[in-house]
């Protein structure tokens, strides 16, 4: 696994919001599983990741995959009583900083539960 992906994984697993955000470029682009438009910038990303730490229960990574174009961290968690399977797709720049983070989750019922629980935290 790439160093940036390994450091991101370690920060998320440790619940270290500051470390996770520090691995990202100032202009990082975050693509949410439940919102059409991407969020841009570290300051937009910080409250989203903070809400994720609150909403996801039992969050843990189960696998990691790396290639020339990016890195994928597969995770499992719960949202309320819904089991969630998902991936964090990381794209890095030449310096190893995260320039794009895309999160995908399944099933649809879990994505809806995620949206419903996160919306009040981010409004």
From TrEMBL:
Per its UniProt record, what InterPro entries does this chain match?
NTF2-like_dom_sf, SnoaL-like
Where the record annotates domain SnoaL-like, the positions are 6-100
User: What is the official name of this protein in its record?
Assistant: Ketosteroid isomerase-like protein
């Amino acid at each position: 696994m790439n160093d940036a992906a390994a450091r991101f994984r370690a920060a998320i697993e440790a619940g270290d919001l500051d470390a996770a955000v520090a691995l990202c470029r100032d202009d990082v682009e975050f693509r949410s599983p439940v919102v059409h438009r991407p969020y841009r910038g570290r300051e937009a990303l910080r409250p989203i990741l903070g809400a994720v730490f609150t909403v996801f229960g039992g969050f843990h990574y189960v696998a990691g995959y790396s290639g020339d174009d990016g890195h994928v961290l597969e995770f499992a968690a719960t949202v309320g009583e819904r089991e969630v399977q998902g991936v964090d797709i990381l794209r890095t720049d030449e310096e190893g900083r995260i320039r794009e983070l895309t999160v995908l989750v399944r099933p649809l019922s879990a994505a809806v539960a995620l949206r419903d629980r996160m919306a009040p935290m981010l409004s």
